[in-house]
Write a structure and sequence with these properties.
- With about 180 residues, the protein is α/β, with parallel strands linked by helices.
- The strands form four sheets. The protein has a six-stranded mixed beta sheet with strand order 5-4-3-7-8-11, covered by helices on one side. A two-stranded antiparallel sheet has the order 1-2. The protein has a two-stranded antiparallel ribbon with strand order 6-12.
- The protein is globular, with a radius of gyration of 17 Å.
């Protein structure tokens, strides 16, 4: 559960309106990382994913989602053990979550209000990859963590979408 509450009150033509971008105390946030075990980009982000989970897990429920058919229980557990990931995971072989949030690559992240379905963030973890095969030495924009900080501090968090760079999800499987 989260303890976040954010809103903006404004007047338009003499009427007051309230916009809410933050989650209410009764809402919960879900952070969904779409992953693939043999994607080098996913592998490179595993330490950061675990750190984000440790730092912000008290404000949101973190999940690893494995959408490709070749991702099976033992392979996923071996991947998680190898990279020290201690997050819950599930498969999405029928691409229900991929379709719901229009996720096409791994790693890609979605932060959603579990109660309302409102998407606060969708996209990359940071700008560490310029393109597939071209990694920056040091990322300059930590988009996901910035949103997690915003949400965990109860600030007015404007929804954001970035372009994720990674390994393509086979969206034609199980169709």
């Amino acid at each position: 559960m989260t303890k976040i509450s954010s809103f903006i009150l404004f007047m338009h033509f003499g009427f007051f309106f309230m916009l809410s971008w933050g989650a209410k105390a009764s809402d919960s946030l879900g952070v969904y990382f779409f992953m693939l075990e043999d994607c080098v980009i996913c592998q490179s982000y595993t330490p950061l994913i675990q750190t984000l989970h440790e730092n912000y897990g008290q404000h949101a429920d973190f999940h690893l989602i494995f959408p490709n058919q070749r991702s099976k229980g033992k392979g996923i557990r071996d991947f998680m053990d190898k990279y020290g990931l201690a997050l819950p995971y599930k498969t999405d072989h029928y691409k229900n979550l991929c379709k719901k949030w229009d996720v096409k690559v791994t790693p890609e992240v979605v932060i959603v209000n579990e109660k309302t379905g409102f998407v606060y963030y969708k996209g990359r973890i940071d700008d560490g990859y310029v393109r597939v095969g071209r990694k920056k030495t040091i990322p300059s924009q930590n988009d996901l963590e910035a949103m997690l900080i915003c949400l965990s501090n109860g600030l007015n968090c404007e929804p954001k979408q970035t372009t994720a760079i990674g390994c393509y999800i086979n969206l034609s499987e199980n169709q």
